[in-house]
Amino acid sequence: EEKAAGVLADIQARYPGRARWIEHLKDNLREHEAVYTMWGRPRKFPGYRNYPSWEQEAVLREAFATSISGTAADIVKTVMVEAQKQGLNSLWNQVHDDLCYLEPGYLDSEGNPHGPIVEAKAALLKAVSLVQPLDGVELTVDVRIGVHWK
């Protein structure tokens, strides 16, 4: 219990805005019975004001996770739309923040990619560069090319 309190104190010291953000979530729950992703997509909790206190605490934990994971989902979906606008239409699979596109191409004897897959990588990198979740926050992306997916 003492160790957990120390970890929490460390988090609060490192991220002073966290407490304000949690208060903001609580205010939204009380006022609107909803929380929102950074881009304004709501998740509603109808009847929240009438929940018993223990259930309100559970909803607060869920709201906290929703605002983070929901924002991540908004970002990934926006990247997918931007990639399609860049001509990348071969989305094969998406799991959380991993996108897998299938494009023709090959790797030469030195492992360098050739063919349409090179343009696909450039299109995906451009799509990510066009998505700006917050001023001053740059998204990082790891784009890999392989001959098979495992």
Which SSEs are present, and which pair or pack?
Layout (H helix, E strand, L loop, with lengths): L1 H13 L2 H16 L1 E3 L5 E3 L8 H33 L5 E5 L2 E4 L4 E2 L5 E2 L1 H15 L20
Antiparallel strand pairs: 1-2, 3-4, 5-6
Helix pairs in contact: 3-4
Shape: elongated
How much of the sequence is in beta strands?
5-15%
The stretches of 5 or more residues where confidence is low (pLDDT under 50) are none
Task: State the helix count.
Answer: 4
Alpha carbon gyration radius: 21 Å
N-to-C SSE series?
A: HHEEHEEEEH
Major pleated sheet = 2 strands, antiparallel
Can you give a write-up of this model?
By secondary structure, the protein is of the alpha+beta class. It contains 4 helices and 6 strands. The strands form 3 sheets. A two-stranded antiparallel sheet has the order 1-2. A hairpin with a 2-residue loop joins strand 3 and strand 4 (98-101). The N and C termini lie far apart (42 Å). The mean pLDDT is 89.
Task: Name some characteristics of this structure.
alpha+beta; 6 strands; two-stranded antiparallel ribbon; 150 residues; single chain
Please summarize what this structure is.
The chain has 150 residues and is of the alpha+beta class. It has four helices and six strands; from the N terminus they run ααββαββββα. A hairpin with a 5-residue loop joins β1 and β2.
